[in-house]
Design brief:
This protein is α+β, with helices and mostly antiparallel strands. The protein has a single domain, classed as Alpha-Beta Complex (paralog of FGE (formylglycine-generating enzyme)). Helices cover about 20% and strands about 15% of the residues. It contains 8 helices and 9 strands. The strands form 3 sheets. The protein has a 4-stranded mixed sheet with strand order 7-6-5-8. It is globular and about 45 Å long. The N terminus is likely disordered.
């Protein structure tokens, strides 16, 4: 099935050659929803079908890799990726980079929104690894992805920017392309292409956004594997892939957990796969979890 998307994948790769991203291209985006007009930091993901999920054989391979690092690993951990199938999406935009500390600080100062960690965070699990002190942080981490933000924080930031959180399906297509690659860069090893399997080193734990150009996706999107987990819009459901729609899926209307994608600096390679799914309560904050935003593209109005 993947080979049938080779031509489309090549077209998408050419779309993000530097020579292609000119003002005349951005003018074509004049039909995007009103709000923020600067989309220069976003990738244009052409509408169409892509390969989502994993089949049973791929689940077993992921399980084998997981067992090498974690003896408690279970095969069912990967069952929510099933099945491997074609899903259709409309055209959309997604941030090229994860939201950084300096970008999030702009939001905090402009709106009075609580900083990445505030007095509402009282547990050791929440406070461990906090790098912000009030509404400031060391300069060295300004371009690292913001962490210790809940789903609600991420949602508020994206709305402030005139954007929204990506759906799970949008995130997955932006990460693996139309042809269903294992990782954003293809099917090869993540070594030298992502930040993962690292120990906590304070200010030097995470890497600046965009540090690994070899790990960029076919659409020119950075850090879709490793560095930090990313909140997405959907309520998590283990069976949604088998029960939900295959056309512009949005997830269930409500639930208990929100979905997370992409793996982080602390995880092993099995979680870096673009199909891997994780979940968490939307109000929690972790030192390995951040986000990026997306935008819908409206149909052009004929005059």
């Amino acid at each position: 099935m993947a080979s049938s998307f080779a031509d489309q994948a090549e077209r998408d790769r050419k779309t993000y050659d530097p020579s292609y991203k000119k003002p005349d291209h951005l003018e074509k985006l004049s039909a995007i929803q009103p709000g923020v007009t600067d989309v220069s930091d976003m990738a244009y993901i052409r509408g169409g079908k892509f390969v989502r999920g994993s089949n049973f054989e791929q689940n077993k391979e992921a399980f084998k890799r997981c067992k090498k690092f974690d003896k408690s690993c279970k095969l069912w951990w990967f069952s929510d990726e099933y099945p491997l199938e074609l899903v259709a999406l409309k055209t959309y935009l997604i941030d090229i980079y994860e939201v950084s500390n300096e970008k999030y600080l702009e939001f905090v100062k402009a709106t009075g929104h609580p900083p990445a960690l505030d007095d509402s965070c009282t547990t050791d699990a929440c406070r461990e690894g906090n790098l912000w002190k009030g509404d400031s942080f060391p300069t060295v981490i300004r371009r690292q992805p913001v962490t210790q933000v809940s789903w609600y924080d991420a949602d508020a930031y994206c709305k402030w920017k005139g954007k929204r959180l990506p759906t799970e399906a949008e995130w997955e297509k932006a990460a693996r392309g139309p042809s269903g690659s294992m990782y954003p860069w293809g099917n090869g090893s993540p070594k030298g292409k992502a930040s993962y399997r690292r120990k906590w080193k304070g200010l030097y734990t995470m890497t600046n956004v965009g540090t690994y150009p070899g790990g960029v996706s076919v659409y020119g999107v950075h850090d879709m594997a490793g560095n930090v987990w990313e909140w997405v819009d959907d309520w998590y459901s283990r069976t949604y892939y088998r029960q939900g729609t295959k056309k512009n899926p949005q997830g269930w209307e409500d639930g208990e957990y929100k979905s997370l994608r992409g793996g982080s600096w602390v995880n092993n390679s099995d979680t870096l796969r673009s199909a891997f799914r994780r979940w968490s309560q939307p109000d929690v904050k972790f030192n390995d979890t951040g986000f990026r935003c997306a935008r819908s593209v409206l149909p052009e109005v004929k005059k």
